[in-house]
Amino acid sequence: MTVLRTLLASLAILVAGIAVLAFSTDGFRAYTTETARRIDVRTHPRPVPPLVLQAADGTRTSFAALRGRWLLVDFIYTRCTTYCSVQGGEFANLQRWLAGPIAAGKVTLVSVSFDPRDEPAQLAGYQRRFGDSGTGWVAVRAVASADRAVLMRVFGVTAVADGLGGFVHNAAINVVNPDGKLVAILDWDDPRAAARYITRRLTP
User: Fold this and answer.
1) Region of 160 on the Ramachandran plot (φ > 0 left; ψ -120 to 50 alpha; else beta)
2) Which end of the chain has fewer beta carbons closer than 10 Å to its terminal beta carbon, N or C?
């Protein structure tokens, strides 16, 4: 009888553990926080707030002003020598690959700096450094520090000072639909997948 009770107790613990794992991994689909975040965005698109942004040319814009087109959004800081130094080249490539939809006003690429030190001059220099062709790619920064924090929270961006003047941060290519909602988070190092994602949605 003692053995039976022990087996039943063990079985109950196992079942409870499986239930907790299923719940915490979204039905066993998500095994990391990043995967869970991507699934959540895909199933529950997040509205992007219409906060005021300053572009590399000094003009003001906002995510609200960019509605009506697909946006590919990344988060960078111009002094970065790791992810951002690759992402800049990737966005320059996307600028070429999506030249048609960009010219038609259907797509815009947006690089958002989370570094309060980045002024328009630094943003412009970042784009020049990676071969910006002048159309369809804007580098911006939030005008207010509180707005910067809001954007990072909405897009799930984490940046921690590394003690050397830079940041340790996550990276991704974020997709915002024409209604102004974050609908997908794609791998930062696979711009061709991002181009395919957009092209499929623009093809009748």
Assistant:
1) beta
2) C
